[in-house]
Structure formats: structure tokens, C-alpha cells
Specification:
Elements (H helix, E strand, L loop, with lengths): L5 E4 L9 E7 L6 E2 L4 E6 L4 E5 L4 E6 L6 E3 L3 E6 L5 H13 L1 H14 L3 E5 L2 E8 L4 E7 L20 E6 L16 H14 L5 E6 L1 H12 L4 E7 L10 H9 L3 H8 L11 H11 L4 H12 L10 H5 L5 E6 L18 E5 L6 H4 L1 H14 L2
Parallel strand pairs: 11-12, 11-13, 13-14, 14-15, 15-16
Antiparallel strand pairs: 1-8, 2-4, 2-7, 3-6, 4-5, 6-8, 9-10, 10-12
Length: 377
């Protein structure tokens, strides 16, 4: 009956993640769970995230203990129905671990093939990471203000079944060109259009977060032929209001403590912002031209401390499928913006979630998006 045993393995959250720490178990051996229940907390260099049960069953054995650091793909526990014998559980674990070396070799090879690389797109050199393949329409991910491709660590690979999924750093962000010639939504959308051309993608599903959501809608406005659908997460362009204290504080913070205070505004659960994440953001901010690039974008997109673009007419005229995700506890862009989105848009609002639904509600966002993309393939 070992076919009824479900392995629980160390997930791969980040593009450079090779190992993770099992911070704690939230379920004890012998306890029954439903699909989606949180089983454990996994700590990475970027964030601490809950490990959700892939199916209903009983946590029969905790193979790894709290505090252990394990390679991606390593067995941390076993889920099975109570009818499966202890002998079958032990046999499954032994077989799984005996094959682990081969699995790790294959995973390493896969990681090497999906390393970020530079792509010349119009006026910019953009840092790009691609995963997945297949005949499905590609999915392009556009991060928000001050973000980078790591913002999609829980999204990119989860949606890469049967399609290419491309994450990249916007101009002025991450490892892309730091000199931003036009920081407006239109200027950034032009860079995205150039990237699609450089990747020989004639049409793509577009997922955009925050400022990236505004860029995605502007891409639809100016290059409608390139957009198959829109998935928007707390997008810019539907309210005048924006938390300019966050925008300025995030751009100008020069000490870790100040940066942590700003990053905590992104999430409802402040414990998600760890020291390593703060360190990573501060390293990026210290790169030559990084702060100036953010200042240019902020001045163009948030003049006089308000959102400068009203994108409601674009969605009202849209003939493509659009879905929206928004956290009701968003401290950066008020969720009231969701009230200004046309009724034709599929809306998903999350109580107790901040500005990063793709991280705080990763499982729900991914499952809903996969169904959305399949429906509108």
C-alpha cells in the first residue's frame, strides 16, 4: 500500500534556493489534516513561509526535526491514511531516501538550466529567469516598486506546468540596468514590450503586482495584441491614494532597522520579514544608481504624493479575461481600489492579508491562477 503514502519534501521557494530550514512543525505525528492545512514553517534566506498539506490524511511520521537544514527535495515527513501499516511507511521512507542522490542530481541540473541571465530589450539590459516549457501561452510576471524576481519565489515554478513562466527585474531594479530613462508606467510598459519581442513571445498572460499591475494594464492599453489575460495583485491605477511614507522610507532607508520597519508594511503577519530578507534588500539598495532609479520612478508614478495614472477606463474597455487579488489589510495601496474595478473582473479579496498576497496566500493565488489560465488557454 506504499502507493498511498505521500512524501512531504523540502520545497523550492526561491530561484537560488538549494536548502531550507524546518523552523517548526505545526502538526504532530498522528494528527489528521485536510488539504491546505499548514503542516510546518520553512525558513529560507528571503522569508519564512508555511508548508501546506498537499492532500488530506494523517501525518504519520516527522522524518526531519525542527531546526534541521535540509536540501531541497529532502524528505521531511510522510502523509498517509491511518490504514497504511507502519511497515509500509518505513519501507516507503527507506526507498525514497535510497533514491535521493539521483533526485538531487537531476534537481541540480534543472536549477543550472534556469539561472537568471541578461536579455537586451530595447534601451535596457534586463535580468530574466525562465522556467517551464510546453505549448501553453507563456506567463510573464511583473513585480512591484522596489521588488525583483524573488518576489515570485512562491509563484513562478508553481505555475510552470505546460508553459514558460518568465520573471524579470524591471529597469532600475535587481540586476537590470539602473539608469531609468522613463520611469512612468508607459515607459516601463514599453520596456516590457521590448522584452517580449526579445524573447520572441508574440502574446502572453501577464501577472502584475502593485506598480507591476499598473505596468501590466498599461501594456494592455498600448500593446493590446501582446496580452492574452491579466492577473492583478493589489495593482496601481484604481485609487489616488498611496502610502507615500512607505515609498519614500523604502527608497531612502540607509539602515537595516529602518528598512525592516518599511518592509513590515508589506505584510499583515510581520513575522514574515526576517533578517536575511532585510539584508538582501539593503544590499540591492546600495548598488550604484539603485536609489536614483527608484526616485525617478516614484516621481513619475506618484506625483504630489498620489497615484498619477487612472487605469479604470482601460479595464472597462478590455475584452480579455482579468482577475484581481487584494489583501484587505494592505498598508501600501488601499483595498478600496478594488471597488473601482469593473464588475467583469474576477475579484478575490483576502482578509488578514497585506500587500503581498502572492506570498501571504501563495497556495490560494496559485491554485486560482492555474484554473484561470487553464480556463482561458
Amino acid at each position: 500500500m506504499t502507493q498511498d503514502v505521500i512524501p512531504l519534501t523540502m520545497p523550492k521557494f526561491g530561484l537560488a534556493m538549494t536548502e531550507g530550514k524546518l523552523a517548526s512543525w505545526t502538526v504532530q505525528a498522528g494528527q489528521s489534516v485536510k488539504q491546505g492545512d499548514e503542516l510546518a514553517d520553512i525558513e529560507t534566506s528571503k522569508i519564512t513561509s508555511g508548508y501546506e498539506s498537499p492532500a488530506a490524511g494523517t501525518l504519520r511520521k516527522q522524518v526531519a526535526q525542527a531546526g534541521e537544514t535540509l536540501a531541497v527535495g529532502a524528505l521531511i515527513g510522510v502523509l498517509a491514511d491511518a490504514s497504511v501499516s507502519d511497515a509500509d511507511i518505513d519501507a516507503f521512507i527507506a526507498k525514497f531516501q535510497s533514491e535521493q542522490t539521483t533526485d538531487e542530481t537531476e534537481d541540480t541540473a534543472s536549477t543550472r538550466n534556469t539561472e537568471p541571465h541578461q536579455v537586451e530589450a530595447g534601451e535596457y539590459s534586463l535580468n530574466v529567469r525562465e522556467v517551464g516549457d510546453g505549448d501553453g501561452t507563456p506567463l510573464l510576471l511583473i513585480h512591484g516598486f522596489g521588488g525583483d524576481i524573488s518576489n515570485w519565489m512562491l509563484t513562478q515554478e508553481a505555475l510552470a506546468s505546460g508553459r514558460r513562466v518568465i520573471a524579470f527585474d524591471l529597469p532600475g531594479h535587481g540586476a537590470s540596468s539602473k539608469t531609468v530613462k522613463d520611469g512612468s508606467l508607459a515607459g516601463l510598459a514599453s520596456a516590457v514590450n521590448a522584452l517580449l519581442d526579445a524573447l520572441s513571445i508574440s502574446k502572453a498572460h501577464i501577472m502584475g503586482h502593485s506598480l507591476g499591475g499598473g505596468v501590466a494594464i498599461t501594456l494592455l492599453k498600448n500593446h493590446a495584441d501582446k496580452v492574452a489575460s491579466l492577473s492583478l495583485l493589489a495593482p496601481a491605477g484604481f485609487e489616488k491614494a498611496v502610502n507615500m511614507e512607505f515609498i519614500t522610507g523604502f527608497t531612502e532607508a540607509d539602515r537595516n532597522r529602518a528598512m525592516q520597519q518599511e518592509l513590515e508594511k508589506l505584510v499583515h503577519d510581520k513575522g514574515l520579514i526576517g533578517r536575511k530578507m532585510v539584508d538582501s534588500v539593503m544590499r540591492a539598495r546600495r548598488l550604484d544608481g539603485a536609489r536614483d532609479a527608484l526616485r525617478t520612478i516614484a516621481a513619475a508614478c506618484f506625483p504630489n504624493g498620489e497615484q498619477g495614472d487612472d487605469l479604470r477606463p482601460v479595464l472597462e474597455a478590455a475584452s480579455i479575461p482579468v482577475q484581481l487579488f487584494w489583501g484587505e489589510a494592505d498598508e501600501v495601496l488601499p483595498v478600496a481600489g478594488a471597488d473601482n474595478v469593473p464588475d467583469s473582473v474576477e475579484k478575490h479579496l483576502f482578509p488578514g492579508v497585506g500587500h503581498l498576497p502572492q506570498m501571504e496566500k501563495a497556495s490560494e493565488v496559485n491554485k486560482t491562477t492555474e484554473a484561470f489560465l487553464q480556463k482561458h488557454a
